[in-house]
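Researcher: Here's a chain I'd like modeled. Treat it as a single chain, no partners, no ligands.
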Amino acid sequence: MLNLLWKINNFKFVALILFFVVAARAAAAENSDHDFNTIFKAVSENSLEYKKIKSDQLLYEAQLQMATSFYYPRLGFEYRYEAFKSDAIDLNGTTSNAVAEWNIFNGFRDSNAKRIAELSLQSANAQLHRFEKNLKAKTEAAYSKAYSLQQSVRFYTEAISANQKNLQSVKLRKQSGLVADSDYLEFELFDSKLKLEFISLQADHQKSLVDLKILANLDTIDFLITDLQPKLAQFKLSEYEKLLTSEKSKLYQSQLAVDVASTVKNFGYAQFLPQVFLKATYGRTGLKESIVNPETVFGITAKWELFSGFDTMAQQKIYAAQLLKAETMLSSDRIHFKNEIQQNVFRLNNIVERLALNLKNPMNVEKYLNTVGQEYRRGVKNSADLKSASELALSSLISKEHLKAEYFELIWNLQEIVGEL
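Model: Modeled as a single isolated chain. C-alpha cells:
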C-alpha cells in the first residue's frame, strides 16, 4: 500500500513538472516575440529611470537659462494712480514712466550661480549619456539571468524524467536480485534532491522574470527565446583603467561634485562683498510734473551688509565641510572603482577561459552519459556509475548557463563604471 502511494505521489510530481514544461512551450508559441530585441525595445521606450534622468537634465537647462538672465538689464514700465489733497490743492491722476535697472556688480554671485548651473547640467548630460550606453548592457544582464534560469529549469525537468527511468530500471534489477537495496535507495535520494533543487530553481526563475518585467515595464513575459552568447576574447586591464579617466566614467560624476562644491564655497564669499545697481527712469514720477517735459533720472545704488550675526561665516563653514566631503568621496571612489575594474576584468577573463573549455563539454558529456547507460545495461557499470554520470551531465549544463549569465552581469558592472566599452 505504501509503495502504491509513493508511486501515485511520484507520478503527480512528474506530471506537474511536465505541465510546466508544456505550458512554457505553449507560451513560447503564443508569445514568440519575447526575444531580446523586443525586450530591449520595451526597456528603451518605457524606462522610468531614463525619464527621471531626462527630467533632471531639462531642469538644469532651465536653471542655467535662469542664471544667465541675471547678466541682462531689467526693462519695464511703471504705471500708478495718485491722489493729493490739502486745504489749498486737490490733485489726482495717473503717472507713468519707463524703467531700466541693471545689476552692475553682485559680488560674483551671478557668475558663480551660472557656473554651478553649468556643472549641474554637465553632470546630468554625462549621467544621461552613460545611462543610454549602459541600458543595453543592463538589459542583457537581466535577460541572460532569466534565460539561464529558464534553461536550468528545463535541464532539471529532463534530469528528473531521466532519473525516473533509471529508478524504475534499478527497481526491476533489485527485484531480480541483481542490485542491493542501497543502490535503489541511492537513486531515490537523488530523485528527492533533484526535486527539491527544482522547486528552488523555479522560484529563482520566477523572480528573474519579475525583475525583467519591472525593467521593461511589461505586464507579462512568459518565455525567452534568445540565447545571448558571450564574446570569448580576453579583456585588457590597462584599457579599462584608462577609460576610468574619461568624461564618460562614473568617476567623472564624483569630480563634477567636487567642482560644484568648490563653486558653492566661492558663492559664499560673495556675501562679504557689496552689491551695486544702476537704475534709470524716464517719464512723470509725480502729478506736478509736466507731461510735455518728462524727467529723466539716473541713480546708482550700492548695498553692503556689514554684519549679519555671524550667519555668513556659519554658511561658509558649511560650504567648506561640503567641499571636504566631496573631495573625500572622490578619493574613495578613485580607489574603489579602480579595484572594481581589476576584479571584474579578472573574473571576466576567468569566465572566458572556462566557457572556452566548456564548448566541447556538452557533446562529450552526452556521449559519456550514453556510453555509461549502455555499459550499465550490459552489466559493465553499476548504478553508482550511472547516477554519477547523470549528476555530471546536469552539473555541466547548469554550469555553462550560469557562467553566461555571470558574464553579462560583469559586463554591465564594468560598463557602468567606465561609461562605455
